[in-house]
Amino acid sequence: MAESVSGQAYGAPVEKPAAEAGFHDPRSFVSHDFEEHTADLGEVAMNYAVAGSPDSPALLLIPGQTESWWGFEKAMALLAKDFHVYAVDLRGQGRSTWTPGRYTLDNMGNDLVRFIATVIKRPVVTSGCSSGGLLSAWLSAFALPGQLRGAVYEDPPFFSSETRPLIGQSIKQSIGPLFQLNSVYLGDQWRVGDWEGMRKAAATHWAPFLRMIPFPPEPPQNLKEYDPEWGRAFWEGTVAQSCPHETLLAQVKVPVLFTHHARHVFPETGNLFGAISDIQAAKVRELVGAAGQPIEYVSLPDAAHAMHNADPERFATIVGDWAKHLPA
């Protein structure tokens, strides 16, 4: 699931071979307030930043699609008063390794299992936004015993980011066209790189919400640090092929905080504007409850999708107050 400009259009350019297209890694990094580190996890080198005292409870922040760790930078400064905060770049994003053909929830979830085991080295609360919320949920179901104390799902696209969901809108009725546009005009590993073509295609796209997005003249920094193959994996359904959302949610093993942000279903089409519809959110609560875990649901219809970035004070208060009441 994406949190920024990123999906298809017709009459798109044909992808050229890498050499002819002038393929190169488009990433040009900028400095941030927190020092960055690298953890060797085997297949990937995971980039991350840390804030707060090691004497405080551990908190792992997981960004969404098209977002690097620094999307949490303002929230980290607030959370560092009460937590030892880790924020990571997932594979294919930020300074972490890009892994063509290997973007799945299971692979990314296991990266985080290794990160907790080798870097954090103690029980942790996880908080992920959007696709990061799916991974926070993945960890709440499949992490090693004792690794998690609790999990925050910040506006996660359960069911709405699948091609054949158990309930409600599919990715083709939600954010998917944006992912496809990225895939066609930027290409896997930026092999096409036609940003101007993507801007023009979005302006006349069949998906109304794409025509509403203000694409800037140049790619924003977060997209420069993002492998567009991520979006193709969601659009084509391979990202969750081995991990249907209902299977994941039925195996949650720790307490959950689920925040649900701005959303709207267009009555004339049934399409979803937002990460997850009300009927899908109700199914999440049902499945987690049936797994025997407490789930606190907080409806925030006025909140931005990436609340941690748009309103870090609100995010830090909600997550901090909930996490403080978890068992040690």
The major pleated sheet works out as:
8 strands, mixed
Extended strand count: 10
Mean pLDDT: 92
- Topology as H/E string? HEEEHEHEHEHHHHHHEEEHEHH
* Widest beta sheet: strand line-up: 1-2-4-3-5-6-7-10
Distance between the termini: 32 Å
Approximate helicity band: 25-40%
Structural class: alpha/beta
Shape: globular
The fraction of residues in strands falls at 15-25%
Radius of gyration: 19 Å
Q: Which stretches are poorly predicted, pLDDT < 50 over at least 5 residues? A: 1-23
Q: What would your notes on this structure say?
A:
With 328 residues, this protein is an alpha/beta fold. It has helices at residues 18-21, 73-79, 105-120, 131-142, 176-185, 195-203, 208-212, 221-224, 229-236, 245-249, 278-290, 307-310, 312-323, and strands at residues 36-40, 45-51, 58-62, 84-88, 124-129, 148-154, 256-260, 263-265, 272-274, 295-299. The strands form 2 sheets. It has an 8-stranded mixed β-sheet with strand order 1-2-4-3-5-6-7-10, with helices on both faces. Strands 8-9 form a two-stranded antiparallel ribbon. The longest helix has 16 residues, at 105-120. It is globular, with a radius of gyration of 19 Å. The two termini are 32 Å apart.
SSE topology:
Blueprint: H1 18-21, E1 36-40, E2 45-51, E3 58-62, H2 73-79, E4 84-88, H3 105-120, E5 124-129, H4 131-142, E6 148-154, H5 176-185, H6 195-203, H7 208-212, H8 221-224, H9 229-236, H10 245-249, E7 256-260, E8 263-265, E9 272-274, H11 278-290, E10 295-299, H12 307-310, H13 312-323
Helix pairs in contact: 2-13, 3-4, 5-6, 5-9
Short précis:
By secondary structure, this protein is an alpha/beta fold. It contains 13 helices and 10 strands.
